[in-house]
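tool=predict chain=A
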Amino acid sequence: MKNNYLQNAKRFVRNSLSCFSFFLLLFTTMQTYAQNPQCQWAEKIAGTARDNAYSTSTDESGNVYVAGAFDSPTLTFNNGIILANSGVDDGYLAKYNSDGVCQWAEKIAGTSYDYAVSTRTDESGNVYVAGIFGSPTLIFNNGIILANSGDLDGYIAKYNSSGVCQWAEKIAGTNYDYVNSISIDESGNVYVAGDFASTTITFNNGIILANSGDLDGYIAKYNSSGVCQWAEKIAGSYNDYAYSISTDVGGNVYVSGRFWSPTLTFNNGIILANSGDLDGYIAKYNSSGVCQWAEKIAGTGYDYARSISTDVDGNM
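tool=predict ok
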């Protein structure tokens, strides 16, 4: 039974992130077409089966970080770097310099389905990764291991610029629990967005959220040491998701997602009413986790808000 659950989770991750990757590619294409740039380099990350790169980020020195997952027995980067698969799907995190030369690659792996789906850097050159794992245990380097609490657990981890894991924390219950996106503010705080099907989902530092429906969205804040500061759910009576998270220079937090429930409830008394089958939404929180406003993006059919980003002027 659990294997069936994990197969479904595998398809969910691939389908969801394939859509995300398509929109990211389309957006980049439109931007580059408008600016008429020239491609400087392109590199493949490849094996003999299905291998994916789900998320990229850059640091202030121009290095490029990529997070993904691989089915292949071995995954080959350039510069002679190869990773061996430990299970069915393994997650990975890799660093390239500004010329596209791979500096290191590290796997995040167990014996089953494990994914690295989002990555971001901080101003000190550390790199953070978020994902999900179905393995009984998830192994990082530097002797760090997480134990699974249910069918599928979320995780976040911090690495230094040399690829050494500093800490890892799970976000978990007894059912399907996801981390979909990660963001870092200018003070080094870590924000994550995801959703959970468990009756309750547990963060560290004694923080727990209770489910209101079938699937609830959430956002959470951690300090740079990996200690959860707060967590807030975004919830109704059906399936509601938090797909993407971003921060601005003022320390505010923005989240986007979709909701199926007749009404979607945020904290601070803010509620959105559904207009059709599935509506998209965006919302703003302050650094203390208090919702400032929420807006839906809606029609009468299936509508999504897959990804969110902010600029230096506070626009989204």
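The longest strand covers residues 51-58. The chain has one domain: 2-297.
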